[in-house]
Design a protein that fits this description.
This protein is of the alpha/beta class and 394 residues long. It contains 15 helices and 14 strands. The termini are close together.
């Protein structure tokens, strides 16, 4: 294997991840081509000249390049990846139930990669027709650009969007009152027990309410409950930020929707518009504390955690099984519990008041991130997998 195809022009964050891995691939002597979703047919013509059978692999995120895009898929013929015998490694940055409809009619050499070990278990159970290639957590990036003049350092920074909860009401009530009660029961159970996953609670409710179902029925049912995942993660995202701002601690938020967060002291909520990955990293490099609220990943990690620490900010986060295995308390990170948010303001005040402690915490975690959790480390793992799968031709 000597050539790598990646994808540009889709979600900015995912392209940033790909560009970070591209650096390592090129250092190792691989030629890299980016298929551009903004000009699919034009880019596909160049792609055909780049591809070499048995010497090229596709590495992508969230099915980009695997959605029957113009130039790479032809009805009645199939994917260009099959024509050229290209193995396709797809890093799925969300739960598989987000992509039920896309998990069909994929290339023959499709390899599914999960960023959370619970996601991986679910994929193995409900999509056994595809190859589970393994668990590959998200990773961090150092800020390597120039500092933005005039930007002050944030005491507490959160990077990510917010959706107000009333937005989800039509989805809860989209069928009838009986289904609305069923969905609300799942949501209430998750808010009461935030250590549990959506699929764990939802499948439990499905079995109780509907008895035995086929795997196909269940995976279709789960794909209709994506809004529950989004509801729960936005509920806790709002609760965590609200807890701090209403305790008198200013929080700078970067992303859409935060002006809709209901809080008693909105003067402590400092709004910044949604921006690109490089600008977020720059702000992290200036921040004292970086606030994280995990998406509903209970056995994986978010890039926000690794980005924060490697760029010099102490990460304040709820935990996950994997995250707590990789980073102990005080190794770049301080953990809070969603069930005990009343303790969060005191933790934050203590850290803001002690610059030496913050420095010690960051130093203890940064070495681990630089040794294990940058995108170059994920690129190395991918090359190893390709080598194994292609019989030593990576």
């Amino acid at each position: 294997m000597e050539r790598i195809v990646m994808v540009a022009g889709g979600v900015e964050t995912l392209e940033y991840f790909a560009r970070e891995m591209e650096k390592h691939f090129k250092e190792q002597g691989y030629a890299v081509f980016f298929f551009d979703l903004r000009q699919e047919e034009k880019s596909a013509k160049k792609l055909r000249k780049f591809l070499k059978p048995r010497k090229t692999a596709l590495i992508t995120f969230n099915f980009q390049g695997l959605e029957k895009e113009a130039g790479v898929y032809k009805e009645g013929v199939g994917y260009i990846w099959d024509t050229y015998q290209i193995p396709c490694y797809n890093i799925v940055a969300d739960h598989p139930y987000f992509y039920h409809e896309r998990l069909a009619d994929l290339p023959k050499k499709y390899y599914h990669i999960s960023i959370d070990r619970r996601h991986q278990e679910y994929f193995r159970q409900f999509y056994p027709e595809y190859t589970d290639r393994g668990f590959l957590p998200l990773a961090g990036s150092r800020y390597e650009g120039e500092d933005e003049e005039g930007r002050s350092a944030a005491d507490v920074l959160f990077t990510g969007n917010y959706t107000e909860l009333p937005f989800f009401e039509p989805y809860i009530h989209w069928i009838n009152d009986e289904y609305a009660a069923f969905y609300q029961g799942i949501i209430d159970a998750l808010l009461k027990s935030p250590h549990r996953t959506v699929e764990e609670v939802a499948l439990e409710h499905c079995h109780r309410e509907m008895g035995e179902n086929t795997a196909e029925d269940l995976r279709i049912a789960m794909s209709k409950m994506i809004f529950i995942d989004m509801y729960v993660r936005n509920y806790w995202r709002g609760e965590v930020v609200r807890t701090l701002v209403d305790a008198g601690i200013p929080v700078e938020v970067v992303g859409k929707g935060w002006e809709k967060l209901a809080c008693a002291h909105p003067e402590n909520l400092i709004l910044h518009p949604q921006t690109d990955s490089g600008s977020c990293l720059n702000m992290l490099s200036r921040a004292k504390l970086s606030l994280n609220v995990m998406p509903w990943f209970k056995d994986g990690a978010h890039d926000r955690v690794f980005n924060s620490i490697v760029n010099g900010a102490v990460c304040i986060s709820d935990g996950s099984k994997y995250l707590c295995e990789e980073l102990r308390e005080g190794e770049g990170i301080c953990y809070y519990r969603l069930e005990q948010l009343e303790a969060l303001p005191q933790m934050v005040r203590r850290l803001l008041a002690d610059s030496e402690q913050r420095s010690r915490i960051v130093h203890a975690g940064r070495t681990k991130i630089e040794e294990r959790h940058l995108w170059r480390h994920r690129a190395r793992t991918l090359l190893t997998w390709i080598w194994e799968d292609e019989g030593g031709h990576a």
